[in-house]
Design goal:
- About 30% of the residues lie in helices and about 25% in strands.
- The chain is α+β, with helices and mostly antiparallel strands.
- It has four domains: about 160 residues, Sandwich (Immunoglobulin-like), CATH 2.60.40.3650; about 100 residues, Neutral Protease, domain 2, CATH 1.10.390.10; about 200 residues, Neutral Protease, domain 2 (Orthogonal Bundle), CATH 1.10.390; about 80 residues, Roll (Pdz3 Domain).
- The strands form eight sheets. Strands 6-9-2-1-11-14-13 form a seven-stranded mixed sheet. A five-stranded mixed sheet has the order 16-17-18-20-19.
- β22 and β23 form a beta hairpin.
- The two termini are about 50 Å apart.
């Protein structure tokens, strides 16, 4: 073994300019909530500092996972900076989100401020606070990649839950390797319920806080069972839990419906407490499925633009249709494969999403790539959701892959491959890699599909693709003629706009449209296809014991209508594709 002189051992660590300055090498944080639950004293320690004339601290403009601007600065007050002697340092406001601190002669700096927060608990209960990291923690641009340490000073009787990890120092400090990880872990503070289960060797924590239902209103055991069923379905699909522990933070509050935000090893889901107390939790199941799948898609399967983050400006990508829309597709996939939904629900849900896309004012005007890129910009008159566009594309891509491979490969395989190939925390994938990945994994050349339906504005190939999954497609297009009536399975009139106009009566049974006999809905649709909106047609009905003829001007359908149903007469290979989507077969490679 080569012996190195002791003098060199002393000098070696200081070789290089970055080592000899003794400048900032970590950022320290301390949170001290007020006992009333309306503010937190935030304390940021920058030590040591070397020969810095100024330090600029900022608050993020946006929140990763939520592609819009936030005025986080509005919750900050009483901003101060003190040096190693405790002396106040002058602060210059550069813009609403940036503050310049005079650090001439300072060897350390402590920045403090008061952060206004909302107490989400019922009156008289221990406060409950939810912290979004980007809305809470200041940053220095040249310190984003430095380690960040966090200590929390809780009032008596309070608890804390988060995806943060305690450091190896055993001193109560949570350690994050950089600012991105620090703010990626939302924090629950105050009163809460903690539950946990193990799945495939990993710990899952389920935290309930806010306005909590009574056990008889909201069974904790039942809810834990639902969450674990979704976790199981996720494992079966992807086959990997890339974390030590995952934390579900469920905030029950006064939100109108629900919302959620994804993180590397946790999620915060806000849900209306009155709905939870009334047992209306379908939305809670859905948002849980969505945010859980994001731990793979978005947090790890991500384009280059989505990490490391630039918090000072909008960050754009053309792939939000994949990030959010494919996640929405797998939201429903996990729900059905977990047993929380059935096949009828699944196909109705997909038909509903496709209808939303078709009826959007931006359909045929704004491509999925364009809607992804311009999410930061207002689009009056041409709005279309990349969530819905992506979910519809997810179903069609899955069908096309299965069709091209004889149902031996699926979109599941692409997701699993991307999770292993986009090797977080390395840089994300590049432009064009999604289509290359699909082609590499499945052998299907998806480039024409991308050019037509993702970059381009060509109509979705519904009538071509959907029957390949053993589905009967009933698509009544906007502008086509229709009766404007609600009909029972026996074709008896139960309501509708035409009923209100007096041409028909409730209980009338449709017998003929023009000369075409109508014995089923298929007959009715076939008869209407031969006609045009605006023409007057004779409609024969049975009213009581009599046969009546009604001369009726066919109105024009104001929006698209779509029904998807399994077709028992479809070829066996097509029906196998439909079953494969629902059941996750064949197993992913």
């Amino acid at each position: 073994m080569l012996r190195i002189p002791s003098l060199l051992l002393i000098l070696a660590p200081f070789a290089g300019a970055a080592q000899t300055t003794f400048d900032l090498h970590e950022v320290g944080w301390k949170l001290s909530p007020g006992a009333g639950g309306d503010f937190i004293r935030m304390e940021m320690t920058l030590n040591p500092l070397h020969d810095r004339d100024r330090v600029v601290v900022k608050i993020p403009l946006w929140r990763p996972g939520s592609y819009r601007y936030f005025k986080n600065e509005n919750a900050i007050s009483d901003l101060e900076a003190r040096d190693q002697k405790g002396d106040l340092r002058s602060i210059l406001v550069l813009d609403p989100r940036s503050w310049e601190v005079d650090t001439r002669g300072a060897t350390s700096l402590k920045v403090t401020y008061r952060l206004r927060v909302k107490n989400e608990a019922d009156a008289g209960k221990t406060p409950a606070i939810h912290l979004h990291g980007p809305a809470s923690f200041l940053y220095l641009e040249d310190a984003l990649q430095l380690p960040h340490f966090l200590m929390v000073d809780l009032p008596k009787g309070w608890d804390m839950a988060s995806g943060h990890r305690l450091g190896v120092e055993k001193d109560g400090r949570f350690r994050s390797p950089n600012y991105d990880i620090l703010v990626d872990c939302p924090i629950a503070l105050g009163g809460m319920e903690r539950h946990a289960f193990e799945n495939h060797g990993k710990t899952f924590e389920v935290v309930l806080f806010g306005k909590l239902p009574e056990p008889e209103q909201f069974s904790r055991g039942d809810w834990l069972g639902k969450v674990e069923a979704l976790v199981d379905a996720g494992w079966d699909l992807v086959g990997d839990f890339p974390f030590e522990k995952y934390v579900f933070l469920f905030l029950l509050n006064d939100i109108g419906g629900y919302s959620g935000l994804e993180h590397l090893n946790s999620t915060t889901i806000a849900y209306n407490h009155a709905n939870a107390k009334a047992g209306r939790i379908a939305g809670m199941e859905s948002v849980t499925s969505h945010e859980f799948f994001h731990l793979w898609n978005v947090k790890r399967i991500r384009p280059e633009a989505l990490g490391p983050f630039d918090y000072s400006r909008d960050v754009r990508t053309r792939d939000l249709w994949w990030m959010e829309g494919i996640t929405s597709y797998y939201t429903d996939i996990l729900l059905i494969r977990s047993g929380l939904r059935d096949a009828d629900w699944f196909w109705k849900a997909q038909a509903g999403v496709i209808l939303t896309v078709l009826n959007s004012p931006g359909y045929g005007k704004v491509s999925p790539e364009r809607s992804s890129w311009t999410v930061w910009d207002p689009s009056p008159g041409a709005h279309i959701s990349y969530y819905d566009q992506g979910q519809a594309l997810g179903l069609l891509l899955d069908i096309e892959i299965r069709k091209a491979t004889g149902n031996q490969r699926s979109l599941d395989d692409v997701v699993r491959f991307l999770h292993r190939w986009v090797n977080y925390p390395e840089a994300g994938y590049r432009d064009g890699d999604l289509s290359r990945a699909i082609r590499s994994v499945t052998g299907w050349d998806c480039r024409p599909f991308f050019e037509r339906h993702i970059r381009g504005l060509v109509d979705l190939p519904l009538e071509e693709s959907l029957p390949e999954a053993g589905l009967r497609v009933v698509w009544m297009r906007k502008g086509s003629p229709y009766l404007g009536l609600r009909l029972s399975e026996e074709l008896e009139i139960t309501g509708g706009s035409s009923l209100r106009e007096g041409a028909f009566e409730e209980g009338d049974r449709i017998l003929k449209i023009g000369k075409a006999k109508v014995r089923s809905r298929a007959d009715l649709q076939a008869a209407l296809k031969e006609l045009e909106a605006g023409v007057t047609v004779s409609v024969q009905v049975r009213r009581g014991g009599a046969i009546k003829k009604v001369e009726f001007e066919l109105p024009s359908r104001r929006s698209h209508s779509l029904i998807l149903q399994p077709d028992p007469d479809a070829p066996a290979d097509a029906r196998a594709i439909g079953r494969g989507i629902l059941e996750g077969t064949p197993q992913s490679i």
